[in-house]
Amino acid sequence: MGEFELLGLLRERLPAAGPQVRLGSGDDAAVTVPGGAVATSVDALVEGVHFRRESATLRQIGRKAISTALSDLAAMGAAPGEAYVWLGAPEDLDDEGLLEVGAGLAAVAAETGTTVAGGDLTRAPVLSLAVTVTGHAPDADDFVTRSGARPGDALVVTGELGAAAAGLVLLEDSSAGAVDGQDLGAAIADALRARQLDPTPRLAAGKTLAAAGATAMIDISDGLAGDAGHVATSSGALLVIDADALPIAPGVEQVAAATGCDPLELAAAGGEDYELLAALPADALAAAQEALAALGVPLTVIGRVETAEGGNPRAEVRRRGGEAAPIRGFDQLRPRKPR
Amino acid sequence: MGEFELLGLLRERLPAAGPQVRLGSGDDAAVTVPGGAVATSVDALVEGVHFRRESATLRQIGRKAISTALSDLAAMGAAPGEAYVWLGAPEDLDDEGLLEVGAGLAAVAAETGTTVAGGDLTRAPVLSLAVTVTGHAPDADDFVTRSGARPGDALVVTGELGAAAAGLVLLEDSSAGAVDGQDLGAAIADALRARQLDPTPRLAAGKTLAAAGATAMIDISDGLAGDAGHVATSSGALLVIDADALPIAPGVEQVAAATGCDPLELAAAGGEDYELLAALPADALAAAQEALAALGVPLTVIGRVETAEGGNPRAEVRRRGGEAAPIRGFDQLRPRKPR
């Protein structure tokens, strides 16, 4: 199949364009009329770095590439708008394979109301995707950045933590295989793997937390401790996280036990959960919890924002008694970044 | 150096943010308030596919990645706005090398008034960049697409053709080395290589042609014949190009002679010249030529738009006498696309 025919087939499978798109894929550039403020983020997924074709289906790879990009928009409280996708295709991926990747992208686009408005298709040594996404809000101030957390705010997190890291252990570490199906149960093991392979961007929760008055927000891609550190640095505050309050996903404890690590490490440093960490003024907490309950998304208070004494903004994960829990890096399992 | 320290250094070297940028790189997403219509395009550059580190400097690679993306905005008549960059770094590229690539990106951003508003840095097997760029105009109708060419319009092209292909021949084909410095002259050979390694997006010319009333426009990345074909298909018209009218760059003829190909093939099928092909109503031609002369950009009439008889829109390159000149593909020299 020729390049342009293949692009045509890819385009055919995309959902219809949203109202802000005046000209979609197929010209030199897409044309949109945002009519307000735009949040834009780019995220990449590279074979051998972020996934293996042995453990993820092509459709899952396409889904994850756009989902992780959209997760950054969720963390801004943005309504998803458009996606622009570079797809780097290796020699050993045939047309059907490329269409499978495209079907995964298209499915998440349809589920989230995102328009895939442009793309580029080239050769690459390994299957690679870079996805730039745009999200919308009436005004720039409607977006929630990392920098607004204030002393007295409560720290909240959506959903459950540690699942993606535990899922990665199950996928990658054969020594953890013993736990799978025995102590764990096949359904829970499958759920953990799905959290690693096919994460869900918390778009509705992000918009709701923004509307509820969140002062700062970030998606948990690098791990709760690290991402809380980013909020602390941007906000110039001390973020205190109560280790015992973390909503640890079912099965994480068993996977941790089977591999000899602390469940807290999977939950606080594992990353890729794509849950949202937000700071909320105390008087906004009850309404936010109620609104998220209506979405079916758990919201857990896991700590508080304090003044950074001595001008040393940072995040601390504290166990009962108050001492800081050392969180080992999880990088050996997640070679996401180059260093 | 740590990832975040390196990102900080990359950010420091970027030009100041433009007026539409409310929040630049460093949060979950950048925030812009476009205030009008936006054109967005994504383009990728992959080592071994689009360049070799043996023949291009790291700075040139950074420059070309953003320049080729901006060329798509030039073809819309857009004013450059923001760029979002994924940089995939191989193991053998050290921090200084990454900063060199970043310096190339930053230099073109500064030269063109583009804000690098976001990015992602990950590992990749080879040096890879995907650059998404946004451009602006007051209204969506201000942008020039590929689909408005009408019978009677003149076809015009900016600058000179064939230089990038001839430059690639000089860089890649050792049998062409004999021509370099002898028949050709070192200055002309250097200029041809520079057209391949460091193309200039025709942003001012694109805006000027749009303002002058261009009905269709495209940048010449795949080769004049192929790109004219895209305009023909999108516009439902026949594009007739006069082979003898093509403004062939100095040195192209000598390189073609040395390698046994037709200069017309380098000029019409070589691609990567990143000049603009536009359709202009006859009554807009004189003003457009005058406006481009004021920019110092040559504008050459190379053909005309005719009615596509029998509903068969296409582009034809005709030699004197009217017969269609067969244009061989140039793909063996430019493995830009996967097929």
Q: Secondary-structure element sequence of chain A?
A: HEEEHEHEEEHHHEHEHHEHEE
- Number of beta-strand segments of chain A: 12
Count of helical stretches of chain A: 10
The CATH topology assignment of the largest domain in chain A is Phosphoribosyl-aminoimidazole Synthetase, Chain A, domain 2
Contiguous low-pLDDT stretches of chain A (5 residues minimum) are 329-339
How much of the residues of chain A is beta strand, in percent?
A: 15-25%
Average of the residue pLDDT scores of chain A: 91
The percent range for helix content of chain A is: 25-40%
Topology of this structure?
2 copies of one chain form a homodimer.
Chain A: H1 3-12, E1 21-23, E2 30-32, E3 37-46, H2 58-74, E4 79-89, H3 95-112, E5 115-123, E6 128-137, E7 154-158, H4 163-172, H5 186-197, H6 203-212, E8 216-219, H7 224-235, E9 237-242, H8 252-259, H9 263-269, E10 276-280, H10 285-295, E11 299-307, E12 314-318
Parallel strand pairs in A: 4-5, 9-12
Antiparallel strand pairs in A: 1-2, 3-6, 4-6, 7-10, 7-11, 8-10, 9-11
What do you see in this structure?
The structure is a homodimer of 339-residue chains. Chain A is α+β, with helices and mostly antiparallel strands. The first copy, chain A, folds into 2 domains: 3-142, 2-Layer Sandwich (60s Ribosomal Protein L30, Chain: A); 154-318, PurM-like C-terminal domain (Phosphoribosyl-aminoimidazole Synthetase, Chain A, domain 2, Alpha-Beta Complex). The first copy, chain A, contains 10 helices and 12 strands. Chain A has helices at residues 3-12, 58-74, 95-112, 163-172, 186-197, 203-212, 224-235, 252-259, 263-269, 285-295; strands spanning 21-23, 30-32, 37-46, 79-89, 115-123, 128-137, 154-158, 216-219, 237-242, 276-280, 299-307, 314-318. In chain A, the strands form 3 sheets. Chain A has a 6-stranded mixed beta sheet with strand order 8-10-7-11-9-12. In chain A, a hairpin with a 6-residue loop joins strand 1 (21-23) and strand 2 (30-32). In chain A, helix 2 (58-74) packs parallel to helix 6, helix 4 (163-172) crosses helix 5 and helix 4 packs across helix 8. The longest helix of chain A is centred in the first third of the chain and has 18 residues, at 95-112. Chain A is globular. The two termini of chain A are 39 Å apart. Residues 329-339 of chain A have low confidence and may be disordered. At the A-B interface, strand 2, strand 3, strand 4, strand 5 and strand 6 of A face strand 2, strand 3, strand 4, strand 5 and strand 6 of B.
